[in-house]
Specification:
Blueprint: E1 4-6, H1 8-11, H2 15-18, H3 25-38, E2 47-49, E3 61-65, E4 71-74, H4 86-95, H5 100-105, H6 108-114, H7 120-129
Parallel strand pairs: 1-2
Antiparallel strand pairs: 2-3, 3-4
Length: 133
C-alpha cells in the first residue's frame, strides 16, 4: 500500500510563512536527497509533498523511486505522477502497490492540491484501469 508523506517543513522550516519554497534549488535538492537517503520508511511508490518554488504548490508532489537510488518523479498534476514513467508504473503494478487509502485519507488541502478532490471518479477509474486502486 502506498503512503503519503508531507516533509516540506523538514526541508524548509519557514515554508508556512511563505507558502512556497524560498531556499535555492541546489540547497533544496541536497536536503531532499539526504532526507530520502536517511528515511527508511519512505518506499518506492510513495507520494511525498515537498512544496514548490513556483506560486502553484500543486507542483510540490513527487513519486519516490528507491529501486536503484533515491530518485523521484514530479508532475504538474500530482494524481498523474504514477503515469509519468512507464517502467516505474509497470513495477508498481507488478508489486501490487495500491493508492485507494492514500487518496481517500488526504486532508482537504492536499486532496485539492494533488488533484483528487475535484476529479475523484476520473482518478479512481484511471487507477482501477491499471489495478492500482
Amino acid at each position: 500500500m502506498a503512503k503519503f508523506y508531507n516533509i516540506v517543513k523538514k526541508l524548509e522550516p519557514e515554508y508556512d510563512s511563505f507558502r512556497g519554497l524560498t531556499i535555492d534549488y541546489e540547497e533544496f535538492d541536497e536536503k531532499l536527497q539526504n532526507y530520502l537517503h536517511n528515511d527508511k520508511d519512505i518506499k518506492t511508490g510513495d507520494i511525498v509533498f515537498i512544496g514548490s518554488h513556483h506560486d502553484r504548490q500543486e507542483y510540490g508532489f513527487i513519486l519516490i523511486d528507491k529501486r536503484y537510488d533515491n530518485k523521484y518523479i514530479s508532475s504538474e498534476q500530482g494524481c498523474d505522477l504514477i503515469f509519468e514513467n512507464e517502467e516505474l508504473l509497470n513495477f508498481l503494478i507488478s508489486d501490487g502497490k495500491k493508492y485507494k487509502e492514500l487518496f481517500e485519507s488526504l486532508d482537504p488541502l492536499y486532496s485539492e492540491l494533488i488533484g483528487y478532490k475535484n476529479c475523484k471518479n476520473l482518478v479512481r477509474n484511471n487507477y482501477k484501469k491499471h489495478n492500482l486502486w
